Structure formats: C-alpha cells, structure tokens
Amino acid sequence: MYLDQDFVVELLSKTTHVPLPEPTSAKPTPLPTVVPTVPRVTFETLHDTGKRTLWVVVVVMALSSLAFYVQAARVPVQKRLFHVLTSFITTFAFLSYFAMATGDGIGFHQTIIREHLKETGQHVVKHVINRQVFWARYVDWTLTTPLLLLDLSLLAGLNGASILVAVVADVIMVLTGLFAAFSNTDGQKWGWYAIACIAYLVIVYQLAQNGRRTVATKDNKTRAFYSSIGAFTLLLWTLYPIIWGVADGARIVGVDGEIVAYAVLDILAKPVFGFWLLTTHDKMSQTTPTVDGFWASGAPTEGTLRVGDDD
Length: 311
What we know:
This is Opsin-1. By secondary structure, this protein is mainly α. 62% of the residues lie in helices and 8% in strands. β2 (107-116) and β3 (123-133) form a beta hairpin. It is elongated, with a radius of gyration of 36 Å.
C-alpha cells in the first residue's frame, strides 16, 4: 500500500509526546553498609621446641627415678622413707610428661574476643583463640607436691595437724589453678588464681613459720639443711604462679615458652631437690630419726590368728 508522504508528516506532528520525569533533589535511600565478617580463628599449640623439651624431661625423670630406687635399696628399710617418697615424686612426673609428650593429657581452652558495632549496637565475634592446656601437668602436681611437702615436713619434724593443713592447702592450690586455666571469663580466671595464691601463702606459713620453729629443736646440721632446701623449694614454687600468670593467664608467653619454663622448674623442684635431699640425708643418717614398727617390720604376729595352724 502506498502512503502519502504529506499525510505521514502531518500525522506525526499531531502525535502527543509523553514528557520525561524531571530530576528531583531528593537523595536515594542508602543501602545497608554493615557487612557480616568471618571471625579470625587461631590455634596456640606446641611446636618442635616444646615437643623436644617434653621428651627431654621424660628421660630426666625416668633416669632420676631409677637412680632414687637404686639409692633406696642401698640403705636400711628403717631409713628409706625419704627415698621412697622422692622416688614416687619423679615417677609420677615421668608418667605425666610421657603423657604430654605422646599427645595425651592435653585439652583446648577457647577464648572469644568480641567487637562492639556502633552501627547496629551489637557485639560480633572478632577473634577466636584456641590454646592448648596441659591438664596432665595439674594431675602431676596434685600427686607430687604433697609428697614433696611430706619430705620437708618430716625433715623439720612438723606435727600431723600442720602437715594436714599444708597438704590440703597444696591440693586446693593446684585444683584452683586448673579451674582458672579452663575459666570462661576474666573474673573467673583471676578469681581462681587469687584463691590459689592464698592457698600458697598457707603453705609458706606452715613451712617457714611452723617448720622453722619445729626444726629449731634439732641439731645444727638439720637446722641448716632445712633452711637451705626449704628456701630453695619456696623460691621455685613462687615462680610457678608467675609463669602461670604470663602464660595461661595473660597469654603473653606462647605454649613453647610455657613448656620450657615449667620444664626447668620441674627438673629443679624434683630431681635436683631429690638428689640434694637424699645425698644429704644419707650423710646425716646418724642424726636423723629412723622409722620402725609397721614400716620396717610389718604387722606384729603375736596374738594374731594364723590360718592353717592346728594349735
């Protein structure tokens, strides 16, 4: 079909145009600017230095235990009490360090760090820290430190009431340290830590005050030896809570540094302490008391019922 050109021009000139919207000054609504973030997760674990240190202490504790048992067999059974107690100390320490060196007796404590967002008023997780806690070490201390206290208490001649108070305070000290290591808040952590320090002061009082007063009635050699080895022990034990505070507590020292520090203290407080105690005790055997009765001879046989006798 043919369209007249003039007709098309006239039709287009009469077509109504739809006006475009005029620009306005209103600003567009902003989109939300809070973008969810993925928290950073880190693991604080031992490395080669820590692993090697654990195995070194395993060997030291094993050899020390063997030496103490041999040394015990060379003295009469009446004078063997200190040898047996000291041998048990290094034996329990050997078991604990062997467990840690092979990967047992280890747990993780998780610390969650949150950040406050001003835009939403919410607290979001920013950082998750998982740190290794060697709970086998606390089992070791629960068993070995009371035995060590028995060594010092018997050397000084403390009465049974003072020994019981010292041992119970020692167990409280170790257990509250374990609770602090796995606490979820700073209030719990440092609260348990404070209780542990108070328990330690009770131990110091029993050894330094009551022990010194009791040992004053003994001979000069015993008094001098107790003062020396007692001061040595209390000095080492004072360093333990300091290391805990900068390691498990404030997390300033890494896991490897913690392992090395505790390893040095454990070697000094157990094998070195044991060799010093037993060597000096054997030299003072003429002035130190002996343990007879059931310890040396067993239960008395007189007046007891013997199975199988006809009379």
